[in-house]
């Protein structure tokens, strides 16, 4: 066996070339800048900004931590990494010869007509040794291309898991913010219902005293029932939002979490720098994953091309053999076997060419998918920037609207109590105030969720 070790080492050095085409990163089919201003850049790396630094709400940070620990989809993504890593370890060992220890014993009886003595013979054979089973010499890179293909699949799985982590953080944050908004809407509806109940009581007293008309009483009752129905609908939506958040987290929320803040006190990084579109190619894990899948398809072309060339395999074994166990390790009992083989493709009815064509088409498909992922990422950032550009104006306008509606409601209430106006003016003012406050909550929710979406779209986390 010592005689063959240098031979195997030399073969290993000679193998490993690849027939896969040289990989070139496809052009990014996006503009060099975003449609609206991207803010300060200053060589800022969004992926270096950890999510605990981005989210200022202590309760939200605690909920995200629970989700990262218990979410089932994230656990599956982590297990997929382990699975593909194991597959890669299996594939890369194909470049190294396998060495097995063998031991066998055979006792056989041959009838007289099958041996030269003419009489039945019982014979024994015992052997112990080392064996290198069929080992493919990778002169044309088939095994190397297979290894590279699985490696790129492994790297793509890692990036997909990182993308799943960022998506989970973003989804939990958005659902948490939706729950906060519904909590605020619930409180607003409760306050409005209490006001409507009070107004109905006043109108009922005035009607019984003969001061107010039945029309005012019916109007007040209709307003009360309308707000009560709205409160019931918001209660349902709030409960469903809390259930959705619990599902995302993967475990019931403990009772000792920090006190929840409000939409106005989230303390997100509002002046989040976004850099340039080209930064997405190095920061977005879904783009990186798509590129690794493309590189795997590129390596698969090398596998298909290698099928056109000869396949050379080696088999070798060595050890001792004897007809008796006592003589198994005696001098002169050594034995060895060296059996190279070569398979040359001559006629395959076009199968190899068809497989090469399939591999090349699959590679072109992955190029299109890779470019599509880039375009989607560009649009997500551009959409978030468009919202960020105008949401401040919306919040300012809604805040002014709430102040004006509150003033209108106060004046209408005073005029109604003084007997100047009917209750209809109070009703209209109360409806406008309720709608204005709801719109302000929605605008603040849009601002917070948009910043969260922008952070995730840039590849942060």
Short description:
61% of the residues lie in helices and 10% in strands. The protein is α+β, with helices and mostly antiparallel strands. Helix 5 runs antiparallel to helix 8 and helix 8 packs antiparallel against helix 9.
What does this structure look like?
Strands 1, 2, 3, 4 and 5 form a 5-stranded antiparallel β-sheet that branches. The chain is built from 10 helices and 5 strands. The longest helix is centred in the middle third of the chain and has 67 residues, at 142-208. It is elongated. It is of the alpha+beta class and 461 residues long. It has helices spanning 5-14, 51-54, 58-70, 72-92, 142-208, 214-249, 280-283, 285-306, 351-417, 423-457; strands at 100-110, 121-137, 311-322, 334-338, 341-343.
Q: Please summarize the sheet with the most strands.
A: 5 strands, antiparallel
Tertiary shape: elongated
Helix content range of the residues, please? 55-70%
Strand fraction equals 5-15%
Number of beta strands: 5
Low-confidence stretches: none
The radius of gyration computed from the alpha-carbon positions, rounded to a whole number of angstroms, is 38 Å
List keywords for this structure.
single chain; 461 residues; alpha+beta; five-stranded antiparallel sheet; 10 helices
Chain-wise SSE layout:
Layout: H1 5-14, H2 51-54, H3 58-70, H4 72-92, E1 100-110, E2 121-137, H5 142-208, H6 214-249, H7 280-283, H8 285-306, E3 311-322, E4 334-338, E5 341-343, H9 351-417, H10 423-457
Antiparallel strand pairs: 1-2, 2-3, 3-4, 3-5
Helix pairs in contact: 3-5, 4-5, 5-6, 5-8, 5-10, 8-9, 9-10
């Amino acid at each position: 066996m010592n005689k063959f070790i240098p031979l195997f080492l030399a073969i290993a050095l000679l193998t490993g070339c690849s027939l896969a085409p040289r990989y070139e990163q496809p052009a990014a089919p996006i503009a060099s800048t975003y449609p609206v201003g991207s803010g300060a850049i200053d060589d800022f790396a969004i992926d270096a900004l950890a999510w605990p630094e981005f989210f200022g709400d202590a309760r939200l940070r605690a909920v995200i931590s629970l989700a990262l620990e218990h979410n089932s989809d994230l656990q599956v993504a982590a297990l997929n990494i382990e699975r593909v890593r194991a597959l890669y370890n299996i594939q890369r060992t194909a470049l190294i010869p396998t060495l097995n220890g063998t031991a066998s014993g055979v006792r056989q009886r041959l009838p007289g007509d099958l041996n030269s003595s003419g009489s039945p013979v019982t014979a024994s054979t015992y052997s112990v040794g080392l064996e290198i089973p069929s080992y493919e010499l990778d002169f044309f890179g088939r095994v190397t291309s297979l290894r590279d293909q699985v490696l790129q699949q492994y790297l793509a799985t890692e990036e997909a898991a990182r993308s799943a982590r960022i998506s989970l953080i973003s989804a939990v944050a958005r659902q948490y913010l939706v729950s906060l908004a519904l909590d605020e809407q619930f409180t607003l509806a409760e306050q409005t219902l209490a006001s409507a109940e009070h107004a109905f009581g006043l109108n009922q007293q005035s009607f019984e005293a003969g001061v107010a008309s039945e029309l005012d009483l019916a109007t007040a009752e209709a307003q009360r029932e309308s707000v009560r129905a709205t409160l019931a609908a918001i209660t349902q939506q709030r409960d469903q939002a809390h259930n959705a958040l619990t599902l995302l987290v993967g475990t019931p929320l403990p009772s000792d979490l920090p006190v929840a803040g409000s939409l106005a006190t989230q303390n997100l990084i509002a002046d989040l720098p976004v850099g340039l579109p080209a930064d997405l190619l190095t920061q977005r894990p879904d783009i990186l994953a798509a590129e690794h899948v493309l590189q795997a398809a590129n390596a698969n072309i090398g596998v298909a091309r290698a099928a056109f060339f000869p396949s050379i395999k080696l088999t070798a074994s060595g050890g001792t053999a004897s007809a008796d166990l006592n003589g198994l390790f005696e001098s002169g009992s050594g034995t060895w076997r060296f059996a190279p083989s070569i398979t040359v493709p001559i006629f395959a009815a076009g199968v190899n060419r068809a497989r090469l064509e399939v591999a090349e088409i699959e590679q072109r498909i992955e190029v299109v998918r890779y470019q599509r992922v880039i375009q989607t990422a560009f649009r997500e950032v551009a959409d978030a920037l468009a919202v960020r550009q105008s949401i401040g104006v919306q919040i300012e306008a809604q805040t002014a609207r709430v102040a004006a509606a509150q003033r209108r409601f106060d004046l209408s209430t005073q005029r109604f109590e003084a007997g100047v106006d009917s209750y209809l003016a109070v009703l209209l003012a109360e409806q406008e105030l309720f709608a204005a406050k709801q719109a302000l909550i929605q605008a603040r929710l849009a601002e917070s969720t948009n910043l969260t979406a922008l952070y995730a779209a840039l590849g942060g986390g």
